[in-house]
Design brief:
With 422 residues, the chain is mostly helical. It has 21 helices and no strands. Helix 2 packs antiparallel against helix 3, helix 2 packs antiparallel against helix 9 and helix 14 packs antiparallel against helix 16. The two termini are 17 Å apart.
């Protein structure tokens, strides 16, 4: 099989191809909606503070319901859980669009609807994250994850442009309505996945309660050293790194390289991720975390450069490397999870991962801004960059992280082969 054919081999599995199409529609609508909702809030007379309230209203219930979503996705067919989540988001965004288009929207209504959509996403995310291993054989996991990453990277680049175009040409209400339609399309595209995905075996005896299964997930999390060590590290990395990059980055860039150049830097980060995905379609990772954590350390480069030598060309190159590094880690992490966690517990593992990684992000964003005002943007963002590098490389001090291998690839399972085309 040629390298190109091997890279695209997961698409021969019909269920995975439909899943990828659904996830692409989902991601395109979500990224476009970020722009649309920002202008929608402004259109109803909101301020930057109001926009922050709307965004926080979505994130908080999503974070709180991640663990519940993990339990649900490990109990029920994941395609069904994700389909219901998508349909709920379609209805909620549709209601938001109607309010905007009729001129009846109020800020409290937008906050409430976004909170409900965040809840739907919190329930659906663990199901979405745990589906890939059920749709392709283990030998195709890396190229399958690479195709998912490529879809995410391309929609990250195209989505905001689409959202901006719709807002400028037809208005924020119609842009939100387009997002609702894409959520509906994503749900419809999951119908073939539900039909093709093999049914899970029925457990012997009475099934454990959801609370018991939640505790099982916690026992798995705390007893799997490489899992909790990396998640704990990312709790720090996301709080410090995203807080510095997203809070202080635009302000410091405006004082140094300029706003237009900052846009190029952000685009370079996304482009670096896409390039890394293309490489990962052909290059097999051996020890996923031994490679992944040094790749994460590349996130320190643009932070340190912005704080010390804010030169546009250097920052573009550093951001591209950081984007590539984050994509390499993402691949390594998904392989580590999908090959070393039992499929019956995978969604719960992903839910604890997401909760631990995201919980401290708001704290970092709230704390780093005042620190920048007190000690100077350049100094704080430089210290944050150094901290990111130290934490990322420090994780390799754990033997469980360094030595975690790829799982040997067994012959394709009969239940997965049955999903193949032809």
């Amino acid at each position: 099989m040629s390298p190109a054919a091997e890279a695209l081999a997961p698409l021969r599995h019909r269920a995975f191809a439909w899943y990828l199409a659904s996830r692409t529609a989902n991601l395109l609508g979500s990224t476009a909606a970020l722009v649309a909702m920002a202008f929608a809030v402004l259109d109803v007379g909101g301020s930057a503070t109001a926009l922050g309230q709307v965004l926080a209203a979505r994130i908080l219930p999503m974070t709180l319901l991640l663990l519940f979503g993990g339990v649900v996705a490990d109990r029920l067919p994941r395609a069904l859980v994700l389909q219901v989540s998508n349909l709920s988001s379609a209805a909620l965004q549709g209601a938001t669009a109607v309010l905007l288009l009729t001129g009846d929207a109020r800020l409290w209504q937008l906050v409430a609807l976004q909170a409900l959509q965040g809840a739907a996403s919190g329930v659906g995310f663990p199901a979405m994250a745990g589906m890939v291993p059920t749709l392709v054989p283990s030998s195709a996991l890396q190229p399958a994850n690479a195709l998912v990453s490529m879809s995410r990277g391309l929609t990250t680049i195209l989505g905001p442009s689409l959202g901006t175009l719709l807002v400028v040409t037809v208005g924020s209400g119609w842009a939100v309505l387009a997002d609702a339609a894409l959520w509906g399309v994503a749900a419809l595209l999951l119908l073939p996945v539900r039909r093709a995905t093999p049914a899970r075996p029925t457990p012997d005896g009475p099934r454990a309660s959801p609370l018991s299964e939640l505790r099982e997930g916690w026992v798995l999390f705390r007893s799997t050293t490489w899992l909790w060590v990396v998640v704990a590290a990312f709790g720090v990395l996301n709080a410090v790194g995203s807080g510095a990059w997203l809070t202080l980055g635009p302000a410091l860039a405006g004082e140094t390289i300029g706003r237009a150049a900052w846009g190029w830097v952000l685009s370079a980060e996304a482009a670096g991720a896409v390039v890394a995905t293309v490489v990962l379609l052909r290059v097999r990772l051996g020890r996923p975390l031994l490679v992944g954590m040094p790749a994460v350390a590349l996130l320190a480069l643009p932070l340190v450069l912005l704080g010390t030598v804010p030169h546009t060309g250097l920052l573009i190159a550093a951001a591209a490397l950081a984007g590539a590094g984050l994509e390499v880690f993402g691949m390594g992490w998904n392989l580590a999870m999908q090959e070393n966690i039992e499929e019956s517990q995978l969604s719960r593992a992903y839910s604890y991962d997401a909760l631990g990684s995201m919980a401290a992000v708001p704290l970092g964003q709230l704390a780093i801004g005042p620190l920048g005002d007190r000690f100077g943007y350049a100094s704080v963002i430089t210290v944050c960059g150094v901290a990111v590098g130290v934490v990322a490389l420090g994780v390799l001090g754990s033997r469980a992280v360094r030595t975690l291998p790829r799982r040997p690839q067994p012959p394709a399972r009969p239940d997965v082969v049955a999903v193949d085309a032809g």
